[in-house]
C-alpha cells in the first residue's frame, strides 16, 4: 500500500517520457518525474520516495525531502494567502494548504508558523493546521523523570519556552533554566525534570540533577584549557555573569567546579579557578 504524506520504499517498474513509474507489491503505481530520477538505476531497483498529491490531486513521488511528514509538526513559512486559506512552503513544489478553519489565528504572508500535517478523511488530501493543541495531549503521559526527549519549541512567553515533546505532549522550559539562545521552531534534545500532579511537564536542556555534573565539569575543563588555565569565575561570582560567560546556572557551575576540585583537577582561588 502506498501511503500519502510518508516515505515509501517502492520498485522501479519502467521508464517513460514523463518519468519513472514506481510500484508496490500490491500492484499500485505512481509517477516519479524525470527531474527526480536517480543518475543510475535499473528496472526492479528499490527507491525511497516521498508521496503527496500533485496539482491535479494525483499521488506523485518525489526524492525531495519535505520539512514535515504525516502526523508530525514543522515550522513553515507562509508563502501566500488567498480567499481559500494560506499556503505554506514545506520543501516541495506544491505548497501545503492550511484552510482558514485550521488557523489558530489568521495567517499572514511572510510569517512563520508551527504547522501539523494531517490527512483529511473527507477529501483524502494532505492538509496543514496551526491549531496544534488539537494534536498534543498530556492525558496519557508515557514519560519518566530524567528521560531524554526530542522537542520542538512552539512559542516563548514570560514564563519560558513552550515545547512539543516527542511530537505528542506539551512541556515548558522555565526561563531561569534557559542558558542558551533558543527560538520558535528549534528542534532540541531536552530532559524531563518534573512531572506535576496535573500532568504538566517541566523540561530542562541539560541533564537534571547529579546527571549533569560530569558533562558540565567537562565543559568547564575545556573552557579553562581554552582560556590558558585560568577563569575569573568562582562560587561567589554573580549568577548573571556565570550565565553569560558559561551558559549555565550558578548552581550547575558550582556543582561542576566542586566535582573538578574533588578530582584535584582545579584550584579554587579568591579571584577564580585554575587548572592544576
TrEMBL record:
Q: Which residues form the Conserved virulence factor B-like winged helix domain?
A: 220-275
Superkingdom, natural source: Bacteria
Q: Which InterPro entries match?
A: CvfB_fam, CvfB_S1_st, CvfB_WH, NA-bd_OB-fold, WH-like_DNA-bd_sf
**Domain Conserved virulence factor B first S1, chain residue ranges per copy:** 4-63
**Pfam families registered for this protein in UniProt:** S1_2, WHD_CvfB
Q: Where is the signal peptide?
A: none
Family statement: Belongs to the CvfB family.
Q: What is this protein called?
A: GntR family transcriptional regulator
Amino acid at each position: 500500500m502506498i501511503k500519502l504524506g510518508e516515505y515509501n520504499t517502492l520498485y522501479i517498474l519502467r521508464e517513460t517520457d514523463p518519468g519513472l513509474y514506481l510500484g508496490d507489491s500490491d500492484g499500485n503505481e505512481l509517477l516519479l518525474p524525470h527531474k527526480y530520477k536517480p543518475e543510475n538505476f535499473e528496472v526492479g531497483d528499490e527507491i525511497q520516495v516521498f508521496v503527496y498529491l500533485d496539482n491535479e490531486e494525483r499521488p506523485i513521488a518525489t526524492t525531495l525531502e519535505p520539512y514535515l511528514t504525516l502526523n508530525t509538526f514543522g515550522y513553515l513559512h507562509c508563502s501566500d494567502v488567498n480567499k481559500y486559506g494560506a499556503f505554506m512552503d514545506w520543501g516541495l513544489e506544491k505548497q501545503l494548504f492550511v484552510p482558514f478553519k485550521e488557523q489558530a489565528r489568521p495567517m499572514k504572508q511572510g510569517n512563520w508558523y508551527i504547522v501539523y500535517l494531517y490527512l483529511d478523511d473527507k477529501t483524502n488530501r494532505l492538509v496543514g493546521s496551526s491549531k496544534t493543541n488539537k494534536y498534543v495531549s498530556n492525558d496519557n503521559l508515557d514519560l519518566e523523570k530524567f528521560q531524554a526527549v526530542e522537542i520542538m519549541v512552539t512559542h516563548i512567553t514570560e514564563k519560558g519556552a513552550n515545547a512539543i515533546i516527542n511530537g505528542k505532549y506539551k512541556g515548558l522550559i522555565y526561563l531561569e533554566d534557559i542558558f542558551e539562545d533558543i527560538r520558535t521552531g528549534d528542534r532540541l534534545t531536552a530532559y524531563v525534570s518534573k512531572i506535576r500532579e496535573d500532568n504538566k511537564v517541566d523540561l530542562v536542556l541539560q541533564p537534571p540533577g547529579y546527571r549533569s555534573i560530569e558533562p558540565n565539569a567537562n565543559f568547564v575543563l575545556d573552557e579553562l584549557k581554552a582560556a590558558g588555565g585560568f577563569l575569573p569565575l568562582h562560587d561567589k561570582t554573580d549568577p548573571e555573569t556565570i550565565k553569560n560567560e558559561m551558559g549555565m546556572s550558578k548552581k550547575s557551575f558550582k556543582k561542576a567546579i566542586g566535582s573538578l576540585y574533588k578530582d584535584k583537577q582545579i584550584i579554587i582561588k579568591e579571584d577564580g579557578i585554575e587548572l592544576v
